[in-house]
Amino acid sequence: MEGKGKKEQIVEAAMSLILKNGYSHTSVEDITNSIGIAKGSFYTYFKSKNLLLRTIIEEQIKSSLEQQEKQLSEGKDFDEILLKNIVSRVKFLKKDLKRQLVLINLARNVDVLGKDVRDLMVKIETINHNFIKRLLNRYNSQLKLQEAEIDQYSQIINSIIRGFKMTNIFFDDNGEDNFFIKDIAEAEKRINHESFDEGINFIYKSILKMLK
After folding, report:
1. Cα dihedral angle (32, 38, 43, 49), rounded to 10 degrees?
2. Torsion angle, CA of 160/162/168/170, rounded to 10 degrees?
3. Nearest residue to 87 via CA among 197, 163, 209, 205
């Protein structure tokens, strides 16, 4: 973690340990020991492990909102913006992939998370849903959807993209417990496989066919 500030080192270490051991089995002491800092240093930046988790999720929310605004401002038409949004939600850069793996695996421990953290996780899906809804409204003069159907279409499209991401990147169909993968290299391998781009193109064309 050379070159990173102490706060960033703590976050990186926490994510690595959460993936390795699970959230419930990762203590503040585990995090600080892994990067060789005093336990008190953790509390300089985070009042609790829960607050650290909030920071990770809030960073994802910030990243999603920034990408969405960029897509809307730079996209030339509905088709282009939709494709950009699908790609941004499923084809992660390495720096974002660890955070995504952590968020997916937190779903296994949702019962031990604080309500504030659970609410933030729900907020991510709400943001994605609202973006699709905003996009449909923006281009509805072309799409000619019934106003009452726009929210339903938004839910369906969001579910298609989320389902593709879960099935093709994160779901561990070889695991004994059939849960989610934790290995970044495995996730990268799946994303970089040629069939992944074919899958993106398939759901993209399927959504366009449904709308047009």
Report:
1. 20
2. -160
3. 197
pTM: 0.91
Instruction: Return the residue matching tokens 């390795």.
Output: 20
Closest CA to 161 of 65, 72, 94, 91: 91
Give the CA diameter of the chain: 60
- Helix then strand then coil, in percent of the chain rounded to 5, is 80, 0, 20
The closest alpha carbon to 10, from 24, 26, 25, belongs to 26
Residue 194 burial by Cβ neighbours in a 10 Å radius (0-12, 13-18, 19+): exposed
Contact predicate 184/93, CB 8 Å: no
The two tokens of residue 187 are 């996730």
Q: Are 211 and 142 in contact (CB under 8 A)?
A: no
pLDDT tens-digit readout, 148-182: 999 999 999 999 999 999 999 999 877 555 578 88
